[in-house]
Amino acid sequence: MTGKYTKSTFIIEMIAIGLGLLFLVPFYFVVVNSIKPFSEILIDAAALPKEILFSNYMKVWDILNFPKAFLNSLVITVFSIAGIVFISSMAAWKMVRTPNKLSKFLFIFFVSAMVIPFQTVMIPLMKLGGMLGIMNSIHGIILMYFGFGVSLSLFLFHGFVKTIPKEIEESASIDGASEFGIFWRIVFPLLKPIAVTVIILNTLWIWNDYLLPLLVLQDPELRTIPLATSSFFAQYTKQWDMGLAALVMGIAPIIVFFLFLQKHIIKGIAAGSIK
Predict the structure, then answer these.
(1) pLDDT tens-digit profile of 227-247?
(2) Within a domain: residue 34?
(3) Minimal CA–CA distance to 27: which of 247, 210, 238?
(4) Which parts of 118-184 fold into alpha helices (H)?
(5) Which residues, including other chains, have CB under 8 Å from residue 258's CB and lie 6 or more apart?
(6) How many domains does the chain have?
(7) How many helices (H) and strands (E) in the chain?
(8) Has residue 268 been placed in a domain?
(9) Residue 136: which CATH number?
């Protein structure tokens, strides 16, 4: 039997709808002004466009060489996520299944790394990258994302692995499965909910990241979408019509990706929090 629809429920729903609309206001300004001429944006940024101007998108496509920037962002994001999931899932599983002092120390070490601000390691990281010869390269920034993304991902995987019965792995071991086979054939498929959560969270971060690519990728041919978009917002010139169109083109793929997989986020985090 369902509960009665009360006045307090209605009020809570209205507050929730109001907050939802409030959070959508920035998206309204970005989308609406991306199809306006620059003069209309200066006159009234909140007004609807008198004339829909899709030529802004066409100009941005050519000026930024958008396909190249999109490909750079896609390659960096996909390979970074693959490495983060690969490393953190196996490390978390091994730590949980080997409960000794070393595993506990490593887990605390990785979790502690999450609270260190990027700005404190920024200069040493650039010096180390220069010494290793991985600056201004796609593979170099992917390696750096491995390092920065593993801590949180390992923490999430670590909690989820505890929910998997160890007896399943013992049965597979008795049947002759190797340790590597046990993980990839038995354990990893069971990690799907938290793996999807890790993929979503890291994709949102890496796709939209600006500071690390700015420091590492100096070659214009290696620019990601955030770096390419920033060219419209210089110190003395701000091309709002072009810049907002570029923002829409940059965030559209990640919004579609997020909406497609968002149902797995709460499910994965909630499951990983239960031992």
Answers:
(1) 988 888 775 567 888 888 888
(2) no
(3) 247
(4) 118-132, 138-161, 166-174, 179-181
(5) 200, 204
(6) 1
(7) 15, 0
(8) yes
(9) 1.10.3720.10
